[in-house]
Amino acid sequence: MSEKAKTLYPTKRGDRSKIAIIGAGAVGATLAYACVIAGHASEVVLYDINKQKVQAEALDIAHGIQFTPMSAVSGSDDIEICRDADVVIVTAGAKQKPGQSRLDLADATVGLMKTIIPAVQEVAPDAVYILVTNPVDVVTYASLKISGLSPEQMFGSGTVLDTARLRYLVSLETGVAVQNIHAYVAGEHGDSEVPLWSSAEIGNVPLRHWGPTLSGQQFDTELRERIRKDVVESAYRIIEGKGATNYAVGLAVSQIVGAVMRDEQRVLTISTLLKDWEGISDVCMAAPTIVGRNGAGRVLTPPLTLAERDGLTESAQRLREAARKLGF
């Protein structure tokens, strides 16, 4: 590395920590902002092929670090900026347009991963890699094959955001703080995802025993289906209205990053390579997983109804077929 590069892109030293974000679009920039506010690392760097854009985004955030936990922020179109990162988050990819499903983006985005992943591995071989780019499950599976990394070291953001959306909607129905809603969405981050209603709780009360909602309605099949549909369609509504989702996904991924950097051993519905999970193997999709400093750990198996298990099997098959069409 040149002396100038060393000055521009300080590498990790001592007990310093570093987060590298690939892609300075709406999601990447928002994620960088969220990580700086949370104080997840000593240094946050952004990489993007658009030099003017990435430098501007980094500078805008850097001007505010006086008001955050101590941190340094920089941006570049030189992959060297990512050297020795502890965590690499990939947000770069094809942009989802109104009316497109996430799976519609697969071909272009996976092609991009064939360039990005090897380049980042050259400078940050020991990082924990988090894939955010949609369709995240297929992109994660393809990136694992491209990189040769273990499923512990490389995984996707999965349905951490969908789970947050589900809990938010249940909170609205009950008036209970969202932090006390315990429910997960598993499967594809997309149209075939499955809310795990059978294990959902409010406090320690099973959802099926909750009783009437604020409107007087029970958590019956009709209400659960309406909430599921709202979770699935919310991204489409946001994209139609403002062109991209960025705030909630930035916060969701920031939570995953925090779980890694602080070795929190937090249970999150990340997209990881499954091996005989409820009979599902050789596919990346979301399941409750313990996340810590070494990346993705034990995959948990909550109680499932037959309908939920069937839904997850169908979701896995949908993702597996998409990966096969791309040659993986």
TrEMBL record:
<keyword id="KW-1133">Transmembrane helix</keyword>
<dbReference type="GO" id="GO:0004459">
    <property type="term" value="F:L-lactate dehydrogenase (NAD+) activity"/>
</dbReference>
<dbReference type="GO" id="GO:0006089">
    <property type="term" value="P:lactate metabolic process"/>
</dbReference>
<feature type="domain" description="Lactate/malate dehydrogenase N-terminal">
    <location>
        <begin position="18"/>
        <end position="156"/>
    </location>
</feature>
<feature type="binding site">
    <location>
        <begin position="132"/>
        <end position="134"/>
    </location>
    <ligand>
        <name>NAD(+)</name>
    </ligand>
</feature>
<dbReference type="InterPro" id="IPR022383">
    <property type="entry name" value="Lactate/malate_DH_C"/>
</dbReference>
<keyword id="KW-0021">Allosteric enzyme</keyword>
<feature type="active site" description="Proton acceptor">
    <location>
        <position position="189"/>
    </location>
</feature>
<feature type="binding site">
    <location>
        <begin position="162"/>
        <end position="165"/>
    </location>
    <ligand>
        <name>substrate</name>
    </ligand>
</feature>
<feature type="binding site">
    <location>
        <begin position="134"/>
        <end position="137"/>
    </location>
    <ligand>
        <name>substrate</name>
    </ligand>
</feature>
<keyword id="KW-0963">Cytoplasm</keyword>
<keyword id="KW-0520">NAD</keyword>
<comment type="pathway">
    <text>Fermentation; pyruvate fermentation to lactate; (S)-lactate from pyruvate: step 1/1.</text>
</comment>
<feature type="modified residue" description="Phosphotyrosine">
    <location>
        <position position="236"/>
    </location>
</feature>
<feature type="binding site">
    <location>
        <position position="27"/>
    </location>
    <ligand>
        <name>NAD(+)</name>
    </ligand>
</feature>
<dbReference type="InterPro" id="IPR001557">
    <property type="entry name" value="L-lactate/malate_DH"/>
</dbReference>
<protein>
    <recommendedName>
        <fullName>L-lactate dehydrogenase</fullName>
        <ecNumber>1.1.1.27</ecNumber>
    </recommendedName>
</protein>
<dbReference type="GO" id="GO:0005737">
    <property type="term" value="C:cytoplasm"/>
</dbReference>
<dbReference type="InterPro" id="IPR001236">
    <property type="entry name" value="Lactate/malate_DH_N"/>
</dbReference>
<feature type="binding site">
    <location>
        <position position="48"/>
    </location>
    <ligand>
        <name>NAD(+)</name>
    </ligand>
</feature>
<comment type="similarity">
    <text>Belongs to the LDH/MDH superfamily. LDH family.</text>
</comment>
<dbReference type="GO" id="GO:0006096">
    <property type="term" value="P:glycolytic process"/>
</dbReference>
<dbReference type="InterPro" id="IPR018177">
    <property type="entry name" value="L-lactate_DH_AS"/>
</dbReference>
<comment type="subunit">
    <text>Homotetramer.</text>
</comment>
<feature type="binding site">
    <location>
        <begin position="93"/>
        <end position="94"/>
    </location>
    <ligand>
        <name>NAD(+)</name>
    </ligand>
</feature>
<dbReference type="InterPro" id="IPR036291">
    <property type="entry name" value="NAD(P)-bd_dom_sf"/>
</dbReference>
<feature type="binding site">
    <location>
        <position position="53"/>
    </location>
    <ligand>
        <name>NAD(+)</name>
    </ligand>
</feature>
<keyword id="KW-0597">Phosphoprotein</keyword>
<feature type="binding site">
    <location>
        <position position="182"/>
    </location>
    <ligand>
        <name>beta-D-fructose 1,6-bisphosphate</name>
    </ligand>
</feature>
<keyword id="KW-0472">Membrane</keyword>
<comment type="function">
    <text>Catalyzes the conversion of lactate to pyruvate.</text>
</comment>
<dbReference type="Pfam" id="PF02866">
    <property type="entry name" value="Ldh_1_C"/>
</dbReference>
<feature type="binding site">
    <location>
        <position position="96"/>
    </location>
    <ligand>
        <name>substrate</name>
    </ligand>
</feature>
<keyword id="KW-0560">Oxidoreductase</keyword>
<dbReference type="InterPro" id="IPR011304">
    <property type="entry name" value="L-lactate_DH"/>
</dbReference>
<feature type="domain" description="Lactate/malate dehydrogenase C-terminal">
    <location>
        <begin position="159"/>
        <end position="323"/>
    </location>
</feature>
<feature type="binding site">
    <location>
        <position position="167"/>
    </location>
    <ligand>
        <name>beta-D-fructose 1,6-bisphosphate</name>
    </ligand>
</feature>
<dbReference type="InterPro" id="IPR015955">
    <property type="entry name" value="Lactate_DH/Glyco_Ohase_4_C"/>
</dbReference>
<keyword id="KW-0812">Transmembrane</keyword>
<feature type="binding site">
    <location>
        <position position="115"/>
    </location>
    <ligand>
        <name>NAD(+)</name>
    </ligand>
</feature>
<feature type="binding site">
    <location>
        <begin position="23"/>
        <end position="28"/>
    </location>
    <ligand>
        <name>NAD(+)</name>
    </ligand>
</feature>
<feature type="transmembrane region" description="Helical">
    <location>
        <begin position="20"/>
        <end position="41"/>
    </location>
</feature>
